[in-house]
Amino acid sequence: MQRILLSRRCLAIPAVRRLSTTPTALSNAFFLHNTQWLPPGYENTKFKPFRDVNHPALATPTPPLKMFKQVDVLTPKKLLKVYAQLSKARLTVLVMLTSMTAVALSPLPTTVPILLSTAFGTALCSTSANSLNQIQEMPFDAQMTRTRSRPLVRRAITPLHASAFALATGVAGPALLWYMVNPATAMLGAGNIVLYAGVYTWMKRKSIYNTWVGSVVGAIPPLMGWTACGGHILPSADYPIHTFLPSFLATNPLPMDVSLVDNPLSPFALFMLLYSWQFPHFNALAYLVRDSYAQAGYTMLSVLDTTKNALVSVRHAALLVPICSVLVPLSGLTTWAFALTSLVPNLVCVRAAWRFYKHGGEKNARSVFQHSLWYLPVMMGLMMFHKQGMDWLKWLGLAPDEEEEDGAKEGVVVVSQ
After folding, report:
1. 286/146 Cα distance (integer angstroms)
2. How many Cβ atoms sit within 10 Å of the Cβ of residue 399?
3. Is residue 169 within 8 Å of residue 141, measured between CB atoms?
4. Per-residue DSSP letters for 82-107?
5. CA-wise closest residue to 125 among 95, 151, 104, 152
């Protein structure tokens, strides 16, 4: 008897456990009759369509006012600050200075309107490119500690407003260069916007060679300054390449013709100086923020291979030595004295880059980055000081002009007669 009861108990089908005691709603809808998932308080009610009454399960409580943050009103002063952050003001100023250096080093004459138009046009092109870059990278900037305070990430400005600002500066910059300077400079500016905001920004998540493309972008502003004065950047029959050998190597030393500095080798030297400088500068910075780049999904050499990242830095730091000591004076931009005075800062930077490659570490990377900050202004100053055909004593009024000396000699002859 016990075995029979036990077998019945074993064979008994357990009762289905109901998740809710709510009766089935009066509805013929197949997907909307399952009231067992409704919250408490919905019992003894009939099903009604959602369009007629708010479903309790979908009702969201109104958050308290303390959960909201008051949006700052964009006053003109704050708006200018936001625009400066969108344009990356310090980077834009550096770009403008590199183009102005090329204007100053050019042997061709220029006017104040062309000088100012080149400066403002280059700044507007850089502003547009940087703004478009931030618009595209807004979701990725939000993941990086270094870029979380950018205006689009913290919603200080809407993407539509930023896009309008980028479009306005992107049109105004090349237009100003086209009508006030020349078409060649305008095309270089417009092309640089496309290269930075289009190709470089896209490649940052695709290939490590984005750094090489970005270096080309940073080396174009000196070409814009050179063409603004009427110079040519490509060799031709009318504009061949001229070299300026040191006096002890020249077989037939002739009087210096400064107009020959206007040859394609001069802008090429400026281009190479800016191109190679960016690798120690950026690769050291990329090493310091490599964790953020990895978190945001950027394909950077500093993330994938830190040793090669430092090797590229030391290669281009070493390449800057022949660029400054051979290529720049050979092009005629400076005298050959620049080859000697530029050795000291170059060797300091090569030593820092070598230690970064040999030992690695954030300390050495920070040292390379800090050296790169003063390197470019110092080199530009030295190039201006050793500019070909420039007599600073006469320019400062500390030495008499040749015409005054000739006039004094003639006066002496007349008096003696």
Report:
1. 11
2. 13
3. no
4. HHHHHTTHHHHHHHHHHHHHHHHH-S
5. 95
Q: CB burial class (10 A; 0-12, 13-18, 19+) of residue 54?
A: exposed
As beta bridge partners, residue 387 has 334
Instruction: Give the residue from 203, 222, 225 showing the smallest Cα distance to 212.
Output: 203
Taking alpha carbons only, the member of 385, 375, 204 closest to residue 277 is 375
How large is the angle between the packed helices 306-322 and 343-359, nearest 10 degrees?
Answer: 160
Residue 269 has phi, psi (to 5 degrees) of: -65, -40
Closest CA to 102 of 330, 268, 329, 294: 268
Who's near 154: CB < 8 A, 6+ residues apart?
A: 148
Phi and psi dihedrals of 334, rounded to 5? Answer: -130, 170
For residues 264 and 235, is the Cβ–Cβ distance under 8 A?
A: yes
Average pLDDT across each block of 10 residues of the chain; the chain has 417 residues. List them in order.
46 45 44 52 52 55 73 83 93 94 89 92 96 93 87 91 95 95 95 94 92 94 93 85 76 63 88 96 93 89 92 95 94 90 95 94 94 94 87 64 53 43
Question: Is there a contact between 229 and 101 (Cβ–Cβ < 8 Å)?
Answer: no
What is the spatial distance between Cα 384 and Cα 173, in angstroms, rounded to a whole number? 27
What is the C-alpha separation between 318 and 295, in angstroms, rounded? Answer: 32
Other Cβ atoms less than 10 A from the Cβ of 262: the count is 19
Q: What's the rounded Cα separation, in Å, for the pair 279 and 371?
A: 12
| Residues 141 and 147 sit within 8 Å (Cβ to Cβ) | yes
